[in-house]
Amino acid sequence: MTTPPPVSVIIVSRGRPALLHRCLIGVGQLWYPDFEIVVVSDPEGLDAVAPWGDAIKRVAFDAANIASARNAGIRAAAGSIVAFIDDDAVPEPTWLTYLVAPFSDPEVAQTGGYVRGRNGISFQWRARAVNRLGAARDIPQSGDAPFTPELAQGEAIKTEGTNMALRRSVIADIGGFDPAFHYFLDETDVNLRLADRCTMIVPTAQVHHAFAASDNRTEDRVPTDLTEIGASWAVFLRKHAPDEMETATDRAFSEQEQRLRRHLDAGRMTAAEKTRLEESFFRGFDVGLTRDAHPSDPLPDPNTPFKRFEHTFDGTSVLIAGRAWSKRRLAAKARAAVADGSVATVLRLSPTARPHRMRFHAEGYWEQRGGLFGPSDRAQPRVRLWSFSKRVAAERTRIGILREKQANIPEIG
User: Fold this and answer.
1) What is the DSSP letter of 147?
2) Are residues 232 and 188 in the same domain?
3) Pair (283, 165) in one structural domain
4) Is 341 within 8 Å of 401 (Cβ atoms)?
5) Is residue 149 included in any domain, yes or no?
6) Whole-number Å distance between alpha carbons of 206 and 120
7) Are 174 and 224 within 8 A, CB to CB?
8) Residue 396 CB-density burial (10 A; 0-12 exposed, 13-18 middle, 19+ buried)
């Protein structure tokens, strides 16, 4: 059996210490045998890391520049693989095991996984391709095996910054992420710069992403400022589509205008706010036209030795099922299981057909709740008759591929 490579999990955080703390609890439950955690954060975030003491590498960084922050994480990372997850996301315990498995093939340069949304059931992103205009498209895929998607001429495989991994040597050799992208499109730029290298999508490498509030959006994903999005579009198109700037700029703005229109129609913003945001996009675009392109000088070797994260989670998983009214009793059992080093999932079923939701508690356990007769997958019928025991068995099977330690990783397809 091939020895799993050492991995550096890099988490960039700014202004969200509580979410960073929850993310770290989830990362601490990973079943991967050899990883370190690198947190790049502002002072508030570094305070949130304090309970872990010296078990986590801490990099002070307080600038609003996601690309530079990620590069700071890479400089501190001593693993042969670097994996990225956002502070408002939580990984499944098998995330790193699945995400890193394709690197057993020396030709693989980067991997990306699937991202579930706020309800923990639906997917935000699965497999996607992107072209030099920044236009992304979904790639249909069935099955769980890692795969390399079929691409059209000029496309690259798109990975998501909250669920991607790269060989450290590969990302370091191309100079890391481009600091001209302060926010947005930074990982897409990397995808295009590595378009000629092998990238694999790993469906079972999954994280849950909350889309938390930030300097640029509310918790409901309503934008509060489009300056940096506009600036990133200008940088991106200058680098990758300089001969189609006008057409591509119109498409990029149209995409944002449609997004604003949806929020306006839903009553989440006023017409005046929509106009202000449109103006901020073009102000940012003008700023982006003046930003220097990244010279792509290679990043240096790690500035600190590898710091293996020691944890007590060894692959034990428990499902604790009960009725909706047993919330406190089920939570107490879950906390006890976590204290014993098990990944714990509470399944609370009501006598309804309500759709299911999944979330990770800051106390360290997963909770899935919904109706006994309701769907836990958006492909399921809205109502299905079940007995309690059969529904519990079905949910155990459904989540088992993500929360039961797998003896065999699916073969690369």
Assistant:
1) B
2) no
3) no
4) no
5) yes
6) 10
7) no
8) middle
The pLDDT tens digits of the residues spanning 155-204 come to 999 999 999 999 999 999 999 999 999 999 999 999 999 999 999 999 99
CB–CB of 82/6 below 8 Å? no
Please give the model's pTM, rounded to 2 decimal places: 0.95
pLDDT, tens only, 26-56: 999 999 999 999 999 999 999 999 999 999 9
Rounded distance between C-alpha atoms, residue 129 and residue 232, angstroms:
19
Among candidate residues 37, 110, 87, 21, the one with its CA nearest the CA of residue 304: 37
CA distance 134 to 204: 26
Domain count, the chain: 3
- Residue 395: give the domain boundaries: 317-403
How many C-beta atoms surround the C-beta of residue 210 within 10 A?
21
* 235 and 199 in a common domain: no
Tell whether 92 and 241 lie within a shared domain.
no
- Give the chain's end-to-end CA distance (angstroms, integer): 19
Q: What is the CATH number of the domain that holds 100?
A: 3.90.550.10
**Which residues have a Cβ under 8 Å from the Cβ of 25 and sit 6 or more positions away?**
90, 360, 362, 364
**Residue type (1 letter), 335:** R
